[in-house]
Automatic annotation (TrEMBL):
One of its GO terms (biological process) is DNA transposition. This is Transposase IS200-like domain-containing protein. Residues 10-130 form the Transposase IS200-like domain. SUPFAM superfamilies: Transposase IS200-like. InterPro entries: Transposase_17 (IPR002686), Transposase_17_sf (IPR036515). Pfam families: Y1_Tnp. SMART domains: Y1_Tnp. One of its GO terms (molecular function) is transposase activity. Gene3D superfamilies: Transposase IS200-like (3.30.70.1290).
């Protein structure tokens, strides 16, 4: 975590993004989260997005990401959803039987900025722990 630089900007922004699988189906299990992480690395290189942490919890995904000011949160969500959906359907053809209509992700998303001085470590730990059983209480986002 530090200052990021482009040709015309210096920035230090971090976002917590959450969205569910279509119909809230529990499909983010087994090798699908690993495939999503691989796809996210490719997206990051192509669009200059740093996916700092990715956590899945069966039917939804949490992203902790940093990206340049030229991109908006909705741009990042659109890029991530469209590319991961297409790639997941190619890699796992059986998903089409689970999700009629050809959409993997549900409409909509949650987006919040994350302060490095305030709640960064808490959100980072929360995103990393998705899908794991823990005795800690869940972070309240609303």
């Amino acid at each position: 975590m530090g200052l990021e630089k482009t040709f015309h900007n210096v920035y230090n922004t971090h976002y917590h993004i959450v969205f569910p699988v279509k119909y809230r189906k529990v499909l983010l299990t087994d090798e699908i989260p690993l495939a999503i992480k691989d796809i996210a690395q490719e997206i990051g290189l192509r669009y200059d997005i740093d996916f700092e942490k990715i956590g899945t919890d069966g039917n939804h995904i949490h992203l902790l990401a940093s990206f340049p000011p030229k991109l908006g949160g909705s741009d990042v969500v659109r890029i991530f959803k469209s590319i991961t959906a297409k790639q997941l359907f190619l890699r796992f053809p059986a998903l089409k039987k689970e999700l009629w209509g050809g959409e993997f992700w549900a409409d909509g998303f949650y987006l919040a900025t994350v302060s490095e001085r305030g709640n960064w470590r808490m959100v980072e730990r929360y995103v990393s722990s998705q899908g794991k059983t823990t005795n800690e209480s869940q972070l309240r986002l609303l």
